[in-house]
Amino acid sequence: MTIAALYNLFLQHPSVQTDTRKLQPGDIYFALKGDNFDGNLFAGQALEKGAAYAVIDNAAYKINDQMILVEDVLTTLQQLAKYHRQQFNIPFIAITGSNGKTTSKELVHAVLSTTYKTYTTEGNLNNHIGIPLTILKIKADAEIAVIEMGANHQQEIAGYCKYALPTHGVITNAGKAHLEGFGGEAGVKKGKGELFDYIREHKGSVFIMNDYDYLQEMSKGISEVITYGTHDAMVVGTVVSSDTFLQVNMLSGNYTGLLQTKLVGDYNLPNVLLAATVGQYFKVTAENIKAALEGYTPSNSRSQLMVKGATHIIMDAYNANPSSMKLAIENFSRQPETKKVLMLGAMAELGAESLQEHQAIIDTISKYNWQQVVLVGGDFLKLSHPYLQFNNAAEAKEWYTGQDMDNTSILIKGSRSMQMEKIIG
């Protein structure tokens, strides 16, 4: 079956599912394969549950004409997403970066949604499966789409661009993340830069944090570069205060004045400025920009303030890398509270530099005074330090539940694999 023919079926049944547990009657089931599963095994079950069709790549499972046999299910899913994307002549904004891309995506979506029918990545569906699924959820009424792109190796972003076809691009930053897959910090810049390479080739537009010299360099030759930052940019803003929540003084742009956000940490300043800049570029009113940025409440353990009785918890445990970990610790050190506890989980995917980067975090911790420091798992366990340590979040939780944390502020952060949110869950 051609992609065009499959697309005609999709128009009749415009809902795609890859998990039979979430399948609804009328969905098209795509039988994806992974290291530990084979979706072909569940194709028959999908039809029994009411799937209109099941797309499979193993002929042994084809039992009737509702089974669509293709060479490779994942490739077909991506090709279908590209075909759907090509039906739209609207801005597609792609956002990638080492830190802050999900928060940036959410803020940009909040601002644009005040004025346009805007579709965006749900949660963290930002990989080779999530991005095509996101594209296929975009309906005919779409006016703008915001697509988050995660990556941990070279040519990954370039691959996403082949079916997302972005018209506008954002690289929030290029720091120390996924060093193992990218081959070091220079490799991170090269990998994230694949988005700008695509935008440059297709004469699109990019938004850059002008404070970062490397983004100025990476964006050279692009048709339109829109800047934001703390100085010398189209939209300029600075931190007024990050006590509890981030306050921003917007100095230039269509909205000027104070922004009182519900985000924790001055490291969220670039994310706020980006959203204001994208809003201004797409002619969102100053009033709507202000309302959206002040109304956005973070969730999913990202820069999230949780209050439990007399305990204040900064839950920033969705992910961590050396860059974001250092920023979070330094920001927390500047908070006015006297009783502060750090609970940090190990960082993943750092390759040969992992021990060195964990030692650097320990060195950063040692510069400040803390009520208590708890380090959990991974390469933290292989280093000498004077702090409490546990093998995993479950052990840390057992310790935590026995402590008096009244009138205490706690920062909880770690890589996704550490599941640090379970400490208070």
TrEMBL record:
Residues 95-278 form the Mur ligase central domain. Coiled coil: none annotated. The lineage of its organism: Bacteria, Pseudomonadati, Bacteroidota, Chitinophagia, Chitinophagales. It comes from the Bacteria. It catalyses: D-alanyl-D-alanine + UDP-N-acetyl-alpha-D-muramoyl-L-alanyl-gamma-D-glutamyl-meso-2,6-diaminopimelate + ATP = UDP-N-acetyl-alpha-D-muramoyl-L-alanyl-gamma-D-glutamyl-meso-2,6-diaminopimeloyl-D-alanyl-D-alanine + ADP + phosphate + H(+). This is UDP-N-acetylmuramoyl-tripeptide--D-alanyl-D-alanine ligase. Involved in cell wall formation. Catalyzes the final step in the synthesis of UDP-N-acetylmuramoyl-pentapeptide, the precursor of murein. ATP binds at residues 97-103. Its EC number is 6.3.2.10. It is found in: Cytoplasm. Belongs to the MurCDEF family. MurF subfamily. It comes from Terrimonas rubra. SUPFAM superfamilies: MurD-like peptide ligases, catalytic domain (SSF53623), MurD-like peptide ligases, peptide-binding domain (SSF53244), MurE/MurF N-terminal domain (SSF63418).
